Automatic annotation (TrEMBL):
General (non sugar-specific) component of the phosphoenolpyruvate-dependent sugar phosphotransferase system (sugar PTS). This major carbohydrate active-transport system catalyzes the phosphorylation of incoming sugar substrates concomitantly with their translocation across the cell membrane. Enzyme I transfers the phosphoryl group from phosphoenolpyruvate (PEP) to the phosphoryl carrier protein (HPr). Signal peptide: none annotated. Belongs to the PEP-utilizing enzyme family. The gene is ptsP. It catalyses: L-histidyl-[protein] + phosphoenolpyruvate = N(pros)-phospho-L-histidyl-[protein] + pyruvate. It comes from the Bacteria. This is Phosphoenolpyruvate-protein phosphotransferase. It is an enzyme of class 2 (transferase). Its EC number is 2.7.3.9. Its cofactor is Mg(2+). Residues 147-174 form a coiled coil. Its main location: cytoplasm.
Length: 311
């Protein structure tokens, strides 16, 4: 019941075996942070910043973005905030006046989106990075790069971050000495070259929404094929488990921030894969916590999975 779930707000998410699980919140606009605080989330695991950019003819400038990020960081009062850089394209498009290219792209889901778009628009990218870095002076902030498929995208993103830091320094602005940089693992290629990407990354976050879309070649927004959009497809589970185990073996933090993380049908499966960090809509935190605290034994996986798909 609701009341029983409510009583879970201030108890920790610990498995019966005594393992502590991190339950963070996904947010889309700064005001969403209030729901995360109310549910006592362990942090913000995914701030989808593109919602600040959508539906307007003029993009937010550095100060406007800084205010939005600062509001979230301050509200979380010392808990970590993972800010994802602009993940625009496909299901989340900019206004036509700003990004005409996306409107004419033959296949937006496979086009110039997310980190690809940012690297092609370096001034806009560094404006966002400077705003995020300024917010890092107010509390623990991590930067998350969406839609990574290539090693050089991580290199270029890191170079842009370093340049943005220098620009702030030249202006006398403060930012944290160490801002961790991670990648979304949401394109199968990224999961398959994780051993190459990990030395360049501080953490990973698995985006199951896109990972399912790109693994199964199912448009996540197309109702005609929605019945084939299956989080439990063995190929999807295989990539998720491989990513979790590879990150853990390398000592790099890994979480799941796609919708699967907030769906109680998959909680035990993800725990059985070794996942200890979940990020979800704030409204899912208590139901997932109740599964975590009550799960006597994690459910066996439907299919045995090898650890390395790219031996
Ligand atoms: C994902 O792809 O799983 C994800 C968390 O990001 P988004 O849904 O914003 O693409
Ligand atoms: Mg995604």
């Amino acid at each position: 019941t609701r009341a029983a779930l409510g009583s879970l707000r201030h108890v920790p998410a610990v498995t019966p075996a005594g393992e502590a699980i991190e339950l963070a919140a996904n947010i889309e606009v700064p005001e969403d942070v209030d729901g995360a605080v109310e549910m006592n989330a362990d942090g913000i695991g995914l701030f989808r910043t593109e919602f600040l950019f959508m539906g307007r003819k003029q993009l937010p400038d550095e100060d406007e973005q800084f205010s939005a990020y600062a509001r979230v960081v301050l509200a979380m009062a010392g808990k970590p905030v993972v800010i994802r850089t602009l993940d625009i394209g496909a299901d989340k498009t900019l206004a036509e006046e700003v990004d005409l290219q996306a409107v004419v792209a033959p296949n937006p889901a496979l086009g110039l989106r997310a980190i690809r778009y940012c690297l092609a628009n370096p001034e806009m990218f560094r404006t966002q990075l400077r705003a995020i870095l300024r917010a890092s002076a107010l509390g623990p902030v991590k930067i998350l790069i969406p839609m990574v498929a290539h090693e050089h995208e991580v290199d270029q993103a890191r170079a842009a971050i370093e340049r943005a830091k220098k620009e702030l320094k030249a202006r006398g602005e403060k930012c944290a000495a160490n801002v961790p940089v991670g990648a979304m693992i949401e394109i199968p290629a990224a999961a398959l070259i994780l051993d190459r990407l990990l030395p360049k990354l501080d953490f990973c976050s698995i985006g199951t929404n896109d990972l399912i879309q790109y693994t199964l070649a199912i448009d996540r927004a197309d109702a005609e094929v929605a019945h084939l959009y299956d989080p439990a497809h063995p190929a999807v589970l295989h990539l998720i488990e491989h990513t979790i185990r590879t990150c853990k073996a390398a000592g790099k933090p890994v979480s799941v921030c796609g919708e699967m993380a907030g769906d109680t049908k998959y909680t035990e499966r993800l725990l059985a894969m070794g996942l200890t960090s979940f990020s979800m809509h704030a409204g899912c935190i208590l139901p997932v916590k109740s599964i975590i605290r009550g799960s006597a034994a994690a459910a066996p996986l439907a299919q045995p999975m090898a650890n390395t798909p790219h031996a």
